Each structure stands twice: as structure tokens, then as C-alpha cells.
Automatic annotation (TrEMBL):
Residues 78-210 form a coiled coil. This is MPP9 phase. Signal peptide: none annotated. GO terms for cellular component: centriole. It comes from the Eukaryota. Keywords: Coiled coil. The gene is Mphosph9. It comes from Cepphus grylle (Black guillemot). InterPro entries: MPHOSPH9.
Amino acid sequence: LSVTSVEDPVIMSKIRQNLREKHARHIADLRAYYDSEIQSLKQQLEASHKNTSSEDLKKINQNLADRDFCNLFLLNRCDQLDAALNEASARIKALENKNNMLEKQVADWRERFYAVSNTSKVLQERIEEMRTNNKEKDNTISRLKSRLKDLEEAFEKAYKLSDNKNTRLKEENKMFQNLLGEYESLGKEHERVKDTLNATENKLLDANMQISDLKR
């Protein structure tokens, strides 16, 4: 048998069933054979009883006694083999039940492993998405910083050029304040995104640890 066939529980169960059946047939054949032998000897004894001397009868009786002893021994041996077969069958049944239970446990652990793997994959995708969004917001903040710097320079330049441009300066100051408020809002949102990203990474780490435990 190949290694794959030996490891297949269905094939092994069929092999054990065939062995049990062959053993049972063998024991039944032995019993039938020796029962037939005993019956034949008894018939021969009855047929030759009238024409046999007492000395011959003693020899025949001794031979019958020897054969009866052998038959009794063989019958006892058959009973022992029968008991051993029953014990082996019970042991095989217990092992098959244990094997079925282990197979169910393996299937359950496999399903749990797949579930945790899928969760880890989803978390990884979410982290990558949040990183992309965070990168985009970082770029937006960088652009706003550059624009704010330009406005500051323009504000200082306009302030130095003329004191008669108060109205324009107020408008630019208002624009500057609005831009500063937008920058602060984006900064707060950026911090929240970072916190969320850290929490998701922690969840992914826990999932990876659970996957490692399940693999072990």
C-alpha cells in the first residue's frame, strides 16, 4: 500500500473490515471442519464397533480421546481468537471514533484560521487605504503650508508698501484667518486619522498573533 492509501481513513477502515470478515470466515470454517471430523469419526466408530476386538476398541478410543483433546484445544483457541478479534474490533472502533473527533476539531480550527486570515486581510486593506488617505492629507497640508507662507509674505509686503491699503489688508487678513482655520481643522483631522491608523494596526497585530497561534 502507498503512504497515501495508508493515511486515508476510509481505505484503512475498509481494510480492517475485510480483515475482520476474513478472520470470522476462517474461524467458522475451522469449526465446521472439526465438527465434520468429529461426526465422521463417530460414524466410523459406530460402523466398526461390531467387527472390532476390544484391543482395537481401546486403541480407537485412545485415538478418539487424543483427537477430542486436539479438537477441544483448537476450539478453545478459536474462542480465544474470537475474543481477541472482538477486542481488536472494539479498539478499532474506539480509534475510529477518536479519529473522527480529531477530524472535526481540525475542520473547526481550519475554519477559524480562515476566518482570522480573512479578518487580517480586511484590516490590512483598511490600513493601506487609511495610509493612502493620510498621505493625501499630508500633501494637502503641505500645500496649505506653502500657500500660508506665500500669504504671509504677501501680507508683510503689502503692509510695508502702503498704509492706505487697510481694506485690502483686512480682506487678506480675513483670508489668512480662514486659511489658518482650515489648516488647523485639517491638522486635527490628520491626528484623528493617525490615531485610527494606529488602532487598526494594533488590531492587525493581534490578528497576526492569533493566526500564528492557530498555525502552531
